[in-house]
Amino acid sequence: MYKYLDWIRYPNGDWCNFHSLNLYQAHFDIMNGVYIIWYSTTGRILYVGQGHIRNRLEERKKDVRFKWYERSNIYVTWAEVDKHYQNSIESYLADILKPIIGEIHPHNELDIEVNLPWEITQ
Description:
This protein is an alpha+beta fold. About 20% of the residues lie in helices and about 25% in strands. A hairpin with a 5-residue loop joins β3 (about 30-40) and β4 (about 45-50). The longest helix has 15 residues, at about 85-95. The protein is globular. The model has no long low-confidence stretch (mean pLDDT about 90).
C-alpha cells in the first residue's frame, strides 16, 4: 500500500526550523500525524515520530538528547495522518530513514510506504 503525504514547509518553501517554530499557531490545534526532524549540515535524520504534532514537538524541544543540537540548524516537517495509519507509516519511515535518536518504533507487518519530504512529486 502507498500513501501520499503532504509534508509541511513554510509558505515560502523553506523547511521549518525546529528551534524557532511557533507551535502555538491554530494550525497545530488539531494536527495529528507523523513528523521527521533532521540535522541540516549532514542531512542525518535525528528523529521520526507520530501523534499530536504540537505536543510531540514540545516534548522533543525539552528532550535533553536534542540539547546538543541547540546551536545547530535542525529542521522539522510533518504531515497529517489519520491515527489508524500512524504506526504503519512511522514504522516505514524509521526503517528507511534510520534516525539516530529515537524510541522504539512500532513494527508492523504492514508498513505503509509513503513519499519522503525531499522527493519531487509530479
